[in-house]
């Protein structure tokens, strides 16, 4: 299993959304500009995440997306699975027909690794990633510190 661009971009976009939604809905154009992700690609990812009820869209001027749930209740596994990224290490996708229609000798190993990966990603939430990155939320939910994307410098928001 290899985490593809789809899963990586979805997680990155959701972190950006979580950081910036305190001022209202965040446009995909804003996320695209902030993260260097194609706008059309983001549209596809957010349509899938909306169907899985991870985000809510707002139309019209000032529209965009906000998280459908609290940052501490959206796991990384939720995001990756929402964009149809498999979390399965087995070649047979758990069907046990990996070696000429039969179960391969290492099937249990890959199956257990799949379970470990899913458990690991299910245990990490957007809020935790924000805190790890030095992005603290104030009492009103607004980000207190943002890491500048290109320079790596910390930029403090005024209170």
Strand residues, percent:
5-15%
Task: Name the CATH architecture of the largest domain.
Answer: Orthogonal Bundle
State the CATH class of the largest domain.
Mainly Alpha
By helix and strand content, what is the structural category?
A: mainly alpha
Taking the alpha carbons of the first and last residues, their distance comes to: 44 Å
Can you tell me the CATH superfamily of the largest domain?
A: Winged helix-like DNA-binding domain superfamily/Winged helix DNA-binding domain
Poorly predicted segments: 144-159
Biggest beta-sheet profile: 2 strands, antiparallel
Give me the count of strands. 4
Oligomer designation: single chain
The helix/strand order is: HHHEEHHHEE
Integer average pLDDT: 82
Number of domains: 2
Helix residue percentage:
40-55%
- Spatial ordering of strands, largest sheet: 1-2
Based on CA atoms alone, the radius of gyration comes out at 18 Å
Please give the count of helices: 6
Q: Kindly identify the CATH topology of the largest domain.
A: Arc Repressor Mutant, subunit A
Q: Which term fits the overall shape?
A: elongated
